[in-house]
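ZP: hey, is the zinc ion complex queued? I don't see it on the tracker
AM: it wasn't, my bad. submitting now with these inputs:
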Amino acid sequence: MRPNEAVEASALAVRLDEWKRRAAECIDESSERLGELSRAIWSHPELAYEEHQAHAALTRFFASLPASPSSGAWSVQRSYKLATAFRADWKWDGASCSPGEASQAPPPPPPLRLGFLCEYDALPAIGHACGHNLIAEVGAAAALGLKGALESLRQSPGGLPRHAPAVKVTVLGTPAEEDGGGKIDLIKAGVFDSLDVVFMAHPSQEDAAYLPDIAEHDVTVKYYGKASHAAAYPWEGINALDAAVLAYNNLSLLRQQMKPTWRVHGIIKNGGVKPNIIPSYTELEFYLRAPSLRELSTLKEKAENCFKAAALATGCEVELQDGANDFYNVLPNKTLKKIYKENGKKLGIDFISDENLNELTGSTDFGNVSFVVPGIHSYFYIGSDALNHTEQYTAAAVSWKKN
Ligand SMILES: [Zn+2]
Ligand SMILES: [Zn+2]
C-alpha cells in the first residue's frame, strides 16, 4: 500500500460510520411502507410456488420507488426464472475520474455485486408461522438502506473514495423455502453466478449471526399391497398398512443407533380407506436431517433399508420417491458473521452466546446457496418467545414493532 493509499484507507474507515448511519436513517424513513409491505404479505398467506400476491406486492414496491436523478430507479424483473420469483436491480456507478486523469488511471475495479434475499411463502393451515413476511421486509429494507448510503457518498464531506468500485444491488425474491426449495431452482438457473455475496435474515427466538441449519432429504414412501375382505378372506390380502406401520417402527428402533444430531420425522399420509378392506395402498412422508451431506447420505441408506424391510416382511411392493431437492447444511462464513455481530452490537442487539446456541435448528435452501456464493443467514428476535411453525408465531409475525 502506498502512503497516499494508507491515508485514504484510514479516512474511509472514519467515514464508514457516517454511511452506516445514513443506511439506518433510510430504513427508518421507509419504515411505514416496509411495514405495510410485510402486513400485506402476512394477510394473504400463500404456499410454495403459489406466492402470486406476495410477488405482486414486492415487485410493485420496488417498481414504485422514486428514481433518484443521479442513479435512476430499480429495474424490476417479474416472474424471474420462476413464476413467483423476482429480481430488482439498482446500480451505483462508483468513482468516475476526470477525462484528464483517464489516460493514467488504472482500469476500474469490477463492480461489487451484492444480493439481498426475500422469502415470502407460508405454511399450510397456519399461515405465516415462520415469519417469511418479515424476511421479505428486512431484505427490502437492507437494500434500501444500502442504496441510501451509497447515494450519500457523493455528498459526503470527504467526497467519493478514489476508485470506489461500482456496486450492483440486487434483491432476489426466492419462493418456496418451506417446500421444494426455490433457491435451488434459481441456483440451477445460474442466478447466483451473478452475485458476489448474499445476505438474508430470518425471524427467530434469538438474535444470532449464525445458527447451525442442517442438511435435509425428503422421501415419500408408497406401499402397494392387495385388497381383500378383512373378515371373510384376510389371507387373500397383502396389507399395505402393515408395511407402513412396520416402516414407522423400524425407524423408531433405528433411533438408538442414530447420532444425537440426526433427525427423522414423518407422517402416514394415507393409511387405507375402510377397516373392513385390507389396505392395498399406503403412503408415508419422511424428512431426514443430519449436520452434513456425508452424514445425511449414511442416514438415507439406513432409512431406506427400514422402508424396504417393511415391504419384504409384508409382501408389498415399495416405491421410494425422493423430494425434488435436497437442502444442504448452511456453511458459516466467519468474516461475515464477525462483522454482523460487531455492527449489530453497536445497534444494541443482544446476541445469543455460542455456548447457548441450540445445536440444531431446521433446514433451509439457503444452505445450497452457501455452497455456491459467500453469504450470511442471520436470525433476529421478534419480541415473542413463541416457536416458529406454531399459530402463536403467526400472530407474533405481524405484531412485531421496532422499539
Ligand atoms: Zn419454516
Ligand atoms: Zn422459515
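AM: back. Residues 130, 132, 177, 202 surround zinc ion (ligand 2) (CB under 6 Å).
ZP: great, adding it to the tracker
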